[in-house]
Write a structure and sequence with these properties.
The protein is mostly beta strands. Helices cover 0% and strands 17% of the residues.
């Protein structure tokens, strides 16, 4: 987890990922869609996470930026309230 990350949302988002494709996943929580890196991390300590999957299917992508299984959701978002969105990620 990046120390400069913010909670993009307190719910995950389902996204279909294609097998064998490398995706750059946002770790900072500041990208426009919260999922794919768009360079919004510039000037922070965050770097995107390169991710690929073995099977084409929908995956739940972590938007709270706190999952121990990042970039995939592990349910950690349930610890965040709506008021935590756009605020710093908690150090669990």
């Amino acid at each position: 987890m990046c120390k400069d990350a913010v909670v993009f949302n307190n719910k995950p988002k389902g996204v279909k990922l294609e097998a064998g494709v490398e995706y750059m996943i946002c770790t900072c929580g500041k990208s426009e869609d919260g999922i794919f890196c768009d360079g919004s991390h510039e000037g922070s300590s965050c770097l995107p996470k390169a991710t690929s999957v073995e099977k084409t299917k929908p995956y739940l992508i972590c938007l709270c930026k706190s999952s121990k299984n990042f970039p995939f959701c592990d349910g950690k978002h349930s610890y965040y309230a709506d008021s935590d969105v756009k605020k710093g990620v908690k150090n669990w």
